[in-house]
Amino acid sequence: MNTSTHLTVTHHTDWSTRTLRRTSMRSTCPARYELFNGNCYRFSTDQKPYNEAQAICQEEVVIWQPAKNNETHDFLANHVRDTTKGNTWIGLSDVVTEGQWVWDDGTLLVGDGIWGTGEPNGGTVENCVHIYPLKDYRWNDSTCPTSRYYICEISG
Ligand SMILES: [Ca+2]
Ligand SMILES: [Ca+2]
User: Fold this and answer.
1) How many angstroms is it from 143 CA to the middle of ligand 1?
2) Which ligand gives the minimal distance to the CA of 124?
3) Which ligand lies nearest to the CA atom of residue 93 in the structure?
4) For residues 65 and 71, which has the higher predicted lDDT (pLDDT)?
5) 97: CA distance to ligand 2 center in Å?
6) 90 CA distance to ligand 2 centroid (A)?
7) Name one Pfam family in it (predicted).
8) pLDDT tens digits, residue range 88-130?
9) Is the dihedral of CA 5, 9, 11, 15 positive or negative?
């Protein structure tokens, strides 16, 4: 056990337990990706319309569903807050059926979501979801053709 691992165990018992349990899933990431909770995330430095961002992530053979739980959302939102502070696509839309939110891997949104105050409010005009700095880095439904930052995920 090296020094950094020991420090992690000492100061973040819950996290180290979780990390140890998931070590068999994924403990490293490709270049440009960051490891979090057994999954890998790449934060874009460019801004793209929703469909283009989706295509880019899929070309990297990733599933685009980065904010599936509160813990992961906090990680992603904090990263956005600390870096670009810009609107960032998260791979969730209701473009197929209005009001039915679906992740990029085809699974339905479970629970209420992490919406900003008053969101979602765009009806059939706004079908793509991004992290929204103006509403405490929670979610906003928005117009899909707008260019925004995006996050690609490689599932553990
Ligand atoms: Ca909509
Ligand atoms: Ca909205």
Assistant:
1) 9
2) 1
3) 1
4) 71
5) 16
6) 14
7) Lectin_C
8) 999 999 999 999 999 888 889 988 899 999 999 999 999 999 9
9) positive
